[in-house]
Amino acid sequence: MHYTGMLAVGVRVTPSGAELPGATTMQFIFPLAVGLGSYLFLTSAFVALSPSAGERAATVSAQRPVESATP
């Protein structure tokens, strides 16, 4: 079926003086790259700077009031 469909397709390349309307490559790719790069940077910074389980446990134990042994 693929070859039958490809046989039915015909392409003629003709030089055209008019430029197609729309965004240029840089107008499309640059904002996409900046947005995706910012998202990935912020996500990786959030993961890298978040405390580990051991650090969280140490913080919780440090915040508990010290109970005295003598009444």
TrEMBL record:
The chain crosses the membrane at residues 28-49. The keyword Membrane applies. Keywords: Membrane, Transmembrane, Transmembrane helix. This is Membrane protein. It comes from Streptomyces alboflavus.
